[in-house]
Design goal:
The chain has 146 residues and is α+β, with helices and mostly antiparallel strands. It is 53% helix and 13% strand. The N and C termini lie far apart (36 Å).
Length: 146
């Protein structure tokens, strides 16, 4: 009897297995929230190309390149650089129905208190903007069950 891994190895191309590994490492390196708004495209000549599906986040992610590269290299992904670019993605219906809300003073205070702990000014401000954006959808009172 053949093991499932043997069957899958013969059924799935080497390129597809490599892509799946890179995509999984990307998810681990960047976290769930960023992974949801990005799609790994390819790794070519040491450059990992990543499509970003929210144009506001392209420049924010550029500030975090070094951290992402370090994490990817620790996982065995040999990338010398990252290239982020905007690519529109049609949102699923469930995402389109998420209502936007105003950030409360408590949420702003919370976001600011977290951001103020970050030493590097560019990372601090990128994180602050990301948290402000987060609180237009979610609340401090939400209990996420992902």
């Amino acid at each position: 009897m053949k093991r499932l891994s043997e069957i899958l190895n013969s059924a799935v191309s080497t390129e597809m297995r490599q892509y799946a590994r890179i995509a999984r490492c990307w998810e681990l390196a960047c976290g769930e929230v960023i992974n949801r708004m990005t799609t790994v495209q390819r790794l070519k000549a040491g450059v990992l190309e990543v499509a970003v599906h929210d144009s506001n986040w392209v420049s924010e992610l550029n500030f975090l390149k070094g951290e992402f590269l370090m994490r990817l290299n620790e996982m065995g992904i040999k990338a010398d650089s990252l290239k982020f670019y905007y690519k529109m993605r049609h949102a699923p219906e469930a995402y389109k129905t998420i209502p936007k809300k105003d950030m409360t003073a408590r949420e702003k205070q919370y976001a600011d208190s977290l951001a103020d702990r970050i030493e590097k000014p560019e990372l601090r401000e990128a994180f602050r903007r990301a948290m402000y954006s987060y609180f237009t959808v979610y609340s401090l009172d939400d209990q996420h069950k992902d």
